[in-house]
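Bench notes, afternoon.
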Amino acid sequence: MTDGEPEAGLTLRRLIASIVTAPSTDLPPGGLGAELTGWATGAPAFRAYLERYRDKIRKKLRGSADDEARADVRAELLFARLLLANRRFELVFEAHGSQRRGPDYSVLFRRTTPFDVEVTRLRRAPTEGAVVGTTAAKVRQLTAGTPNVLVLACDAVDARALDLSAAMATLRRRADAWDGTFFGTRGFDTRRAFYDRFLRLGALVAWCPDTDGQARADAWVNPAARTAAPHRALAAVVEALRARP
């Protein structure tokens, strides 16, 4: 510790270094370590989250084989940072277990409204086809009996320009016509199996972290969902994702 440096600052650097597996507390400039340090500074709820789930986050980062996989983890962490800036939210990471392929987060809104959130990142251009294909794959992870929200992080200039309603209509048409090759590669053998999971989807959120304001997030609500996404909680999620850390 240098003269005049608060102990808390050193502790934060040690925490971040242990997560990103830096060899010392001297994190290199730029990169995820620097971002996490900035996100956690002055954000006690997110810092507590990092402390609580340090081992799980470190394991996910170590298991990330390439830059794309690390960017996926970054999106999950940024989602947590933005939601925890709002005191109405509480998050549990991988409450269903990392091996069961459940949603990333179990969320509690105002201590009374629970729902699950899966955060995923589109690894290609945010076209309708990308939204359709990713959603079809990710609904397999949604839980029964709990409202579910799927958040799609993407590189776009305006989340509102992604026509989520049209994309979901296209997905249902493909299911009704049963495109066996398309759904088979996403883990579904029958139309019934797909709809069992699709009807667990309460809402879909497009999230563009690299833009600003209302263009950062937009939502589609599934009118056919067996368990509806809680309206006020969903609106608060969208509001949170429209902010910057």
